[in-house]
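quick q for whoever's on today - can somebody do inverse folding on this one?? i tried earlier but teh output was garbage lol. tokens:
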């Protein structure tokens, strides 16, 4: 005789089934690992390599690192179909990129030798949005990107 599963455990059953575990490992784990890498990088007082000495190169780094974050996030939203519309997916990519960028800047505020700026936050959010936009644009035209 099988035990009854309470209704509030049904979503867990979906995420813990073998095909869903493989999907989780292929789609969600890379985003979590990359988010942890961003967190680790922001907790360092010094850069691994010194950036060139021209103006605002830091913003370019923030933009590029969050563009990758946006691509990984867009992959998840496309795979799981949340939300169903493309504009909705782009709004979620932008919101989550800005929220994670905000948490990253807040974290940097407490790291010696680092500081939080609105320009970095703006570069984070816009980079994530552009990464998500490019992912959806190339995915629609049939170009494989992930």
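ok took a stab at it. sequence:
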């Amino acid at each position: 005789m099988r035990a009854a599963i309470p209704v509030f455990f049904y979503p867990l059953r979906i995420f813990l089934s073998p095909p869903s575990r493989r999907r989780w490992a292929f789609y969600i784990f890379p985003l979590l690992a990359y988010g942890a890498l961003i967190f680790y990088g922001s907790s360092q007082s010094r850069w691994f390599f010194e950036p060139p000495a021209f103006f605002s190169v830091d913003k370019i780094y923030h933009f590029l690192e969050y563009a990758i974050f946006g691509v990984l996030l867009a992959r998840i939203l496309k795979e799981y179909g949340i939300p169903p519309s493309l504009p909705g997916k782009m709004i979620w990519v932008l919101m989550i990129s800005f929220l994670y960028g905000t948490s990253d800047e807040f974290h940097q505020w407490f790291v010696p030798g680092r500081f939080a700026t609105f320009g970095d936050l703006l570069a984070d959010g816009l980079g994530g949005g552009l990464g998500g936009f490019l992912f959806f644009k190339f995915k629609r035209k049939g170009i494989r990107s992930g």
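fwiw The mean pLDDT is 82. also The longest helix spans residues 18-42. so keep that in mind when u check it
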